[in-house]
Specification:
Blueprint: H1 2-21, H2 29-44, H3 48-55, H4 63-75, E1 79-80, E2 83-84, H5 86-93, H6 101-118, H7 128-139
Antiparallel strand pairs: 1-2
Helix pairs in contact: 1-2, 1-4, 1-7, 2-4, 3-4, 5-6, 6-7
């Protein structure tokens, strides 16, 4: 369960980071991250309790919290129109792999496993983000995607 919590936390950090990188203009990264978070909060109606559950490294239990998480994944292109985007997942995680081609290959394999597990259909009720986190947590170690909390 501890691994799942770290996976939730890291997927969200990567999502916000990628969403920030995709924002054009003169806005600083911190301001862009705040803007992305604020936009997703507004779009989904997420409450502070929803956001706190993510800060506590938990998958939100409420629909608004799950929709908030899904919004962040969509901004990072890990999801596209309610569907898992394996290519987007690879792009989102690649910077963290620091050019390690072996890990990049494993990441591609993991994204394919998750695509098979999650499917190609649009996921309703904001269940997509939850399914992505669960898949990465379930299969990540098998593909060398071990997450740590060191800064």
């Amino acid at each position: 369960m501890k691994f799942l919590a770290y996976t939730v936390y890291l997927l969200l950090l990567f999502s916000v980071s990628i969403a920030v990188r995709n924002t054009a203009g003169k806005i600083t990264q911190n301001e862009s991250a705040k803007k992305t978070l604020g936009n997703c909060k507004t779009e989904t109606g997420a409450t502070m309790a929803d956001i706190e559950s993510l800060k506590e490294k938990k998958i939100p239990k409420t629909k608004t919290g799950r929709c908030f998480m899904e919004c962040l994944f969509s901004k990072a292109k890990i999801m596209d129109n309610g569907r898992f985007n394996k290519k987007g997942m690879v792009v989102a995680f690649t910077p963290a792999l620091k050019g390690d081609l072996t890990k990049m290959g494993k990441l591609r394999e993991l994204s394919e496993v998750c695509e098979k597990e999650i499917g190609l259909n649009k996921l309703e009720n904001c269940e997509g983000g939850k399914k992505i986190v669960e898949c990465v947590a379930k299969h990540g170690k098998s593909y060398g995607m071990s997450f740590s909390t060191t800064k």
